[in-house]
Amino acid sequence: MPVLDALKAFWILGVFLLTFFWLPTHLFSGRPNSPRVLRIAGNWARTVLCVTILIFLMCSLRVFGVITVVLFFLGAIAIGWFRKRGGVSRGLWTSLQATTINIMRQIESRSFNLFLLARKRASTSGRQSWGLRVNAWLRLLEGKELLGASFIVVLGTTVVLRTEHAVRELRFDQPEEYSALLRARELMLNIHPAGRPFVFPAMIAATSLLSGADSMQVTRFLAPAMGLLVVLATGLFIQVCARVGVAVVAVIYCLGAAAFPPARDQTGVAMSAMEKIESVFTGSPATMGARPEFALGLLFLLLALAILADWYRNSRGWDSLLDFTCCLLLTGIISQVLLIILVIAAGVLLLRPMAGPFAFVMLCYGLMGWATLSNVIIISDEMRTILPVAAAILVGCFLAFIEAQLAARDRRKAETLLLAACLCVAVIWFRPQRLSGRWLEYEAAARATQEIAYRFPRQSWVVAAPVEQLAETLGLGGHEDLAGFVEKYRTQVTNPEFRFPDRREDLFIYVEKKPFQFFSREPETVSFSVLTDPTYRHYRSPGGRASLEAAALQLCENYRQYHSNANVFFENEVLRIYHIHGQQASDSRTGQ
Questions:
Q1: Is residue 280 part of a domain?
Q2: What is the DSSP letter of 458?
Q3: Are 473 and 216 in contact (CB under 8 A)?
Q4: In terms of domains, do 463 and 580 share one?
Q5: DSSP secondary-structure letter at 28?
Q6: Are 367 and 221 members of one domain?
Q7: Looking at per-residue confidence, does 380 or 234 come out higher?
Q8: Among candidates 326, 299, 411, 350, which has minimal Cα distance to 24?
Q9: Distance from CA of residue 528 to its chain's centroid?
Q10: Can you list the alpha helix ranges (DSSP code H) found in 85-190?
């Protein structure tokens, strides 16, 4: 199973990279004066914006599907191919002429040796071009071997920590990923085209249709990929503004591997002003992942600042401003608060590039402090996930200042000394750690749902399960809320003549023998709106979920006692799934 999941991950990520990174290099202009990394970032922003707008239009017209997506993808490849050759008609005519001439020469020569010689020359030129590229990279790394090795180790550690859960388990480790999956399935069914979130679900839908993989599998692997891109964008922002390699490595380590600053448990509710301010600086959820849509907005915010800083420092052309505008639009689509931070930080950055990171840090902590102390503005809890990014940028700015002071004497020794100091701090105080998962279901439940979707025909089955299964089954089968299902039928199943009214062939009822615990214990304080929410009452509250699962178990056992068309589809130590099959057949026999 892990090997199969790893192969799925490579396939899905390969299609994703092909669509959003390889294709834009052929579709958009090269911008030869800009660094390669910023060209990739700009093309990525343009592609995401184009895909988002295109999917919105196709969903509004109810034509979004596999055929239209593949046609647009092939059309984009054709446009890039012709664009690279100087135009559609001219490129096609030139290509036909060259092909015809080559065929004629091969026929006239009739010499296999000449053919081998041409192939040898072509391969030799290819090896020479690759050799030139390798030599260029080696010249770039000359004198920075230790820094390069540190970067590779830190990046590898970050990749392992950020992706190991997605490869190991099918269930999501963040609740917000279920809403992203649900929106992606709605887009693929041409439902609610303008609903939120939109940008990340649009990427999921496009990748799913192009790769042929289920959107749940795509969400599973793209969500940690967005977190990795945020980490790399933060390091890129520091590199463009400060131009210090040690600071980049430290930023990536703090944000990606060490989850700096570490989260602290809050023993009570902050009452005084000092306690509220302390909760902002010490209670940031550094080990909690941001919502994928919000992480995407933060990614475009950082890319916009990095592109703008490079444009200001090096007097780039209008292409860089176009890239910045695309990032600005995407940030505004995702979050208005992030858009405000971007506009203010960009204004400060234009005055002095190095002041941009400090302005970003002050804006993030200042905004959260103001929201905590007053009731004038209301900021969602997900805004707290931006504080670890701000803290990592602050660490990068601090190290950049120290290296600038030491580099005046001996740059190489200053770099080595700073790397050694950072290594000691990382080993003693901030060791690598995983992100804290907030699971909503058992792994067996997610696996069983996938098995049902593969084994049974589409829309021929329905599951009575918690709300998380709605996102996993939409478009594949039916879903009925377990709490409403139990409340509706618990008193009727003891009647031997009773049949469930759903006309689908197979019904699956999820019953947890050991109720899943979202909290380790009941929260001490819960707002009235949360307390009266049915989802919290039935599925998040430990006591409420235990009562519901006990009632569901009693319902299923009573039905099995009086009916013969029920059996156990799946069972392990924590979960049992009842299968009530042949609903249509049973109804037809009853009618006869």
A1: no
A2: T
A3: no
A4: yes
A5: S
A6: yes
A7: 234
A8: 326
A9: 32
A10: 88-109, 112-141, 145-168, 176-188
Distance, in Å, from the CA atom of 553 to the CA atom of 578, rounded to the nearest integer, reads 10
CA distances from 530 to 206, 470, 524, 549 (A): 35, 21, 13, 21
| pTM, entire model | 0.86
Question: At which of 376, 393, 428 does a domain end?
Answer: 428
pLDDT tens, position by position, 546-555 = 999 999 999 9
Quick: pLDDT tens for 264-288. 555 444 555 566 566 666 555 566 6
User: Of 383, 346, 350, nearest to 364 (Cα)?
Assistant: 383
Would 86 be classed as within a structural domain?
no
Lowest mean pLDDT among 98-112, 221-235, 250-264: 98-112
- What confidence score (pLDDT) does residue 528 get? 64
Q: Which of 238, 285, 282, 251 is nearest to 386 (CA)?
A: 285
Report cis status (omega within 30 of 0) of the bond before 261: yes
Query: Same domain, yes or no, for 373 and 453?
Result: no
Coil, helix or strand at residue 509? strand
* Cis preceding-peptide flag for 197 (omega within 30 of 0): yes
Q: What is the pLDDT of residue 274?
A: 62
Euclidean distance between CA atoms 223 and 213, whole angstroms: 15
Count: domains in the chain: 2
Q: What is the pLDDT of residues 316-345, one digit of tens each?
A: 788 889 999 999 999 999 999 899 999 999
Residues 225 and 160 in one domain: yes
225 close to 238: Cβ distance less than 8 angstroms: no
Q: Are residues 537 and 475 in the same domain?
A: yes
Q: And the tokens for 55?
A: 């999917």
501 lies in a domain?
Answer: yes
For 481-496, give the secondary structure using H, E and C: EHHHHHHHHCCCCCCC
User: What range does the domain containing 175 cover?
Assistant: 2-64+148-262+289-428
Which pLDDT belongs to residue 40? 92
Lowest mean pLDDT among 28-37, 45-54, 361-370: 28-37
Both 467 and 418 in one domain: the answer is no
